[in-house]
Amino acid sequence: MATFSKQLSFRWSDLDPNFHLRHSAYYDFGAQHRVEILAQLGLTLKVMQKEHVGPILFREECVFRKEINLSDEIIMQTKMAKMKADASRWSIVHEFYREEVLCAVITVDGAWMDTKLRKLASPTPQIVVDALSTFPKTADFIAL
């Protein structure tokens, strides 16, 4: 699989006063897609609870290139841009396309938290390593 793709459907509440997609909606779509992808890779919320691990973000940034309007057909593509071999640190990129036009790019940098100890998970559970290792990579992927 070269990428995870999802066609987005917008609601009236996703718009801002200028009638285009509000800035925080982009982040909501990215977060939802990451959870869906992890579940597809076997890392469901139930598994995370059992393993006492959960993803945390250190940075989340969006670069807005073109407006997105309510009726636009947008495909979001999600790939791994950077990752440590033990999957303890990673960067994921979400690209929003209208046909072939890149409209926005979200980049998130994250890690895994031990939900019992409330600190970074060490070592990263094997199920997390296995799931993230199969994640599609960007063309310029960097092994940290």
TL;DR of this structure?
The chain is an alpha+beta fold and 144 residues long. The protein has helices spanning 23-40, 45-51, 126-133; strands at residues 4-8, 53-64, 74-83, 89-98, 101-114, 119-120, 137-143.
Mind sketching the topology for me?
Layout (H helix, E strand, L loop, with lengths): L3 E5 L14 H18 L4 H7 L1 E12 L9 E10 L5 E10 L2 E14 L4 E2 L5 H8 L3 E7 L1
Parallel strand pairs: 3-7
Antiparallel strand pairs: 1-3, 2-5, 3-4, 4-5, 5-6
Organism: Flavobacterium taihuense
Pfam families: 4HBT_2
Protein name: Thioesterase family protein
CA-based shape:
globular
Structural category is alpha+beta
Largest β-sheet summary: 7 strands, mixed
Number of strands: 7
List low-pLDDT spans.
Answer: none
| Helicity range | 10-25%
Approximate strand percentage:
35-45%
Tell me, rounded to a whole number, the average pLDDT: 94
Total count of helical runs of at least 4 residues:
3
Order of helices and strands: EHHEEEEEHE
The Rg value, from CA coordinates, equals: 16 Å
How widely separated are the two ends? 22 Å
Describe this structure in words.
- This is Thioesterase family protein.
- Strands 1, 2, 3, 4, 5, 6 and 7 form a seven-stranded mixed beta sheet that branches.
- The protein has 144 residues and is an alpha+beta fold.
- Strand 4 and strand 5 form a beta hairpin.
- Helices cover 23% and strands 42% of the residues.
